[in-house]
Write a structure and sequence with these properties.
Layout (H helix, E strand, L loop, with lengths): L1 H55 L3 H4 L1 H7 L1 H16 L1 H24 L3 H28 L6 H27 L14 H23 L17 H7 L1 H29 L8 H25 L5 H21 L2 H15 L2 H9 L7 H10 L3 H16 L1 H4 L1 H19 L6
Length: 422
Amino acid sequence: MGMMARHMEIGAEIGAEIRAERAAARLFMLSIGVFFFGGFLTSVVSLLVPRLQLMFDLGYARALLVQLAFHASYLLFAIPILAIIVRVGYMRSVTIGLAVMVTGCIGLVYTQRVPGFTAVLGALLLLSGGITFLQIAANAVVTVAGPARHAASRLTLLQGFNSLGTVLGPLLCAQFVLPDIEGGFYGFSNGDAAIFPFALSGVALALLSLAFGLNRNMLGPVSRTIVPAAHYLPLFFGNRRLRLGTAAMFGYVGAEVTIGTLLTNYLMQPGIIGAAPVTAGRMVALYWGGAMVGRFAGAWLMRRWNAATMLAAMAIGATVLTVVGALWHGPVAAVALLGIGLCNAIMYPTIFALSLPKDQNATPPASTFLCIAVVGGAIIPFFTGLLADRFGLGPSLLLPAICYFGIALFARDCFAGRAETA
């Protein structure tokens, strides 16, 4: 009798493991869509800058308010969103985030049909609020769903799909969002062409939100473990590595977004290659494609190189290429700026990993600060735009170059072991 009970117990355990593996596989497939559309919409939003410049006769600084609105949510909403995630759980939070993104897509469809610059900024802030949910919750979902020993590989693979989205965004959507070679927009009279990327993305995101909602109980009971907010600031000010890493993350996202956003205008300049708007927009895919290829190559190289050394090499490379793009002319300058995408590839995960304190209990608040640092994508582009209006687009790129140099200094401190505590 005891033997039979033991066999039944073993059978139940095996059955539970099989169900858990199937659930993890299903969740991974759903997460592919989340990561893909996050990258896809991020790169399409960058194409709005040259479009809005022409539609509303804007300078660089005002046009780059697009990125200010799109990335400000990380500063405004990260803490409230973290509180919601703690309360309702990861799966429900992803569902909410996707639904908010759908609302943002609807807003962008409306603003393309009834143009209004302030309305565009409001819709972008709404869209980025949903992405902030996913930035915090979706990464955690992938980490906890499935064997812990494979968490890094799952995240790396999903980041590859995110990069695929950033590549396909400009390739597929430049013809709809940007003006044609004669200077008019496809469907300019009513904005029909420009709504396609946002309308189709909204439909796909709505289906994903429904799928996550139907699977909302997949991860079991919600964890109620809350890290007291009173511990956040002492941790931040008491840990040199976290402080420097947060600054490096701020600079990295700011520099990457600035260059990705201004590349279309940059390549259109007669002194660079004088590309037509749609052609220039499609060429931006090379910048994001470099990041996609570099992620997989970087994962292989980092098995052989120290992470801090690798980060320093890429940051110095990006600094040099940005300076060349800022001060040089012609195809050499264009190739240099496009090549920065390859250097960007390993920066986000490496900065993130090097910045975390050794105490694993401090990971949640530390991760929150690193997430908030993504607001660099709002601030650095805006100030680069102010410089571009005053000194020209090329010289303004020296600000992203300074950001990359700061990342190299952070990597040097990590390699030397100085970036530990205050």
